[in-house]
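no rush on this but wanted to send it before i forget. what follows is a protein written twice so to speak, once as letters and once as structure tokens for the fold. mainly i need to know what kind of three dimensional shape the backbone takes. thanks a lot i owe you, the record is right below.
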Amino acid sequence: MKRLGALFLLCLIFAGCAHRWREGDLDRSASDIEASLRGISTHSNANQTSNTSQAVAFLDDSNTAIYYSEAPSELGDVEEVAAFYDFDFLSTPVRTNEIQSVKVYYLDRTTDKGPQGALVFDIATTTGGETIESFVNDGTNGLTPGQYLDDGYYIDLKGSNGQVITFHSEDIDENDDVLNTVIQGQILSKDATGEDQFHGKISTLIGYF
């Protein structure tokens, strides 16, 4: 599978949303990414959630596209790629300044009822710990399918502890309801009053098809 790169406009939340151009490129193949995701369950020191297997099951469906990012890497440092105010939406929250490396997988599955998805975080900390967390919308957990609206793609995803987050990307094809080959993904959740809480974004997710 060929590598995919892109030149795109990036708005970093920690830079006052200043616009600048970057190249996104990872020296990884689709088979590398798939093997990495399938191998997550073998990580003996990981705090894993029960629905990681549901996320991995997306790989067996030919209607699934994989989007992937990692840091530190050619894409940038952790704070550039995983530009988050906090990770409080995880069942085991981590401090942003304690993250040594991060891998993020987004699985976008097309169905006749609408988009389904799975978002997987694999975070290694400076203390030697590892947190793996998966958020899934596969049609079995009471969530409605994703939607393409005027301001982008939205999908609700549920963690194994019941936490629901919204994955939002403005990077969609103008002529069709599909995600672009390189996207940014914003993460939101509802606070106790029902208001949207913005946690941050994955600034670069490269698609492997």
